Amino acid sequence: MIWTHTGNKVFNATANITCNGVTMGGSIKINTAGITITLLDDFFLASFILHQQGTFEANDKNVTCFGISNNFSTNTRVLNMGSGLWTITATSGTGWSLATATGLTINASTSTIKHTNTGNNALTFAGGGFTYNNLWFDRGTSTGIITITGSNTFAEFKDTGTVAHTIKFTDGTTQIITSLDTNGSSGNLITLTGTSTGGWIISDSSGVNTVSYTNISYSTATGGAIFRALQKNGNIDGGNNSGWNFGWTDVNKPTTPTWTNDNPVGKEQYDQSSIEYDDTDIFYDGVNPNQFTKVAKPTTPTWTKISKPI
Questions:
Q1: Which residues of 266-281 are buried (b: 16+ CB within 10 A; e: fewer)?
Q2: At residue 233, what are phi and psi to the nearest 5 degrees?
Q3: How far apart, in whole angstroms, are the C-alpha atoms of residue 166 and residue 154?
Q4: Does this model's pTM top 0.85?
Q5: Could you state, in order of their start, the residue ranges of all structural domains in the chain?
Q6: Residues with Cβ < 8 Å from 187, sequence gap 6 or more?
Q7: What value does the mean pLDDT of the chain take?
Q8: pLDDT digits over 74-83, tens only?
Q9: Which residues contact 299 (CB under 8 A, 6 or more apart)?
């Protein structure tokens, strides 16, 4: 079947779609129970995918569209995202609008969702509490607020905006991640905060999440991983946080350094240029923390020579 119509398209039977590099006008609506719409090449759509019933099979193709919505439907729907890049071009509002979870199954596979609009309007990602692979906001010079709704799971949560902007997480929600990548620049901080003062949670089970030039507030970091937002890397503790490590500070090296720590993950570094310490204690720990002495941080961070623990 070859489409020549440029308006909205309604699918009431199983079909394949081939774009041949052409952007389809209008929206498409998948509107009948039990049908499957399958992409045969990369898909380009000027408006929304309205997924009200049936299965949308991306078939490992790339998808570019204004947005996707289940249009408040609670019918049985299956979204197979495949391994492709889903580029959302929405200029405002809710480009990813899958907040109605009833009846919906999302198989995210290894896909990436990428928001690319560089305008300054606010955008919302309504995740519906589903598990996704990668979510990426690549909005360039946009100052528009981004709001995340639902308690979602992401392999990677990434923002590569180049100017100061804010990401808000709905109060009371939990975002489970494997990797957090929010790195602003001097004078262009990324703000992570809640929608009000109720607080939001970010959770990761293992590893280290390190951010730079990020202003964080009303956040609880939990799950077992390390969440490191060192102030020396331009980060700001915006208040009402727990579980984040903001407190690392450089202090003077010993007059005659006598040993070097290889900087294991999560431990302090003592080498011939500087010592770093956190807000609680220092562990001299090159190999086994149980073999070394714990030393309280100094009131005034100016150190002289310290002997290596036995």
A1: ebbbbeeeebbbbeee
A2: -100, 25
A3: 19
A4: no
A5: 9-163, 186-248
A6: 164
A7: 85
A8: 999 999 999 9
A9: none
